[in-house]
Amino acid sequence: ASPRSLRDRLTALLDEAQRVQGVLHLWGHSWELEACGLWGLADDLFRMVAESVPAQRRVRTADLPGLMART
Fold this sequence. Notes:
With 71 residues, the chain is an all-alpha fold. It is 58% helix and 0% strand.
């Protein structure tokens, strides 16, 4: 089996998070995106989220501890 691209893996993670009504939490720094040339991929991922995840299902990082405490 050939390795999947980072884009494919992120898409699969987003799909799975939606399927199980979970959370896909990404952590990174702008300098890391810059150093690795990943701004285009980040833009694409943010566009996918905006198009496929309803606003009421989006969660801020600051709200994750409270969300996790309820599960």
